[in-house]
């Protein structure tokens, strides 16, 4: 199954669980062996492979065990370097600055006007 915007969360969890199970079997690891290497319980691995939700950190440990952790770079790529940031000597932007047009919501008044 292809994961896209049309899939609900439960279908995505089920598909990810099946993909992890296929990778584990292709790696010739039993659930017990894979769970022991990942540092999680066999039950947690079994629940995930059946489409149940688990903690993200445990999912990362499973991916590391199956040697596919690098694939997360495809999921959320690093931010490309913006030439406008070069003058900041490597400081990353922390917030968005509003322009003067964004701040204007109408004519400014002193407050004592009726």
From TrEMBL:
It comes from Synergistes jonesii. CDD domains: HTH_XRE (cd00093). Gene3D superfamilies: lambda repressor-like DNA-binding domains. It holds the Pfam family HTH_31. InterPro entries: Cro/C1-type_HTH (IPR001387), Lambda_DNA-bd_dom_sf (IPR010982). GO terms for molecular function: DNA binding. Residues 20-72 form the HTH cro/C1-type domain. This is HTH cro/C1-type domain-containing protein. PROSITE patterns: HTH_CROC1.
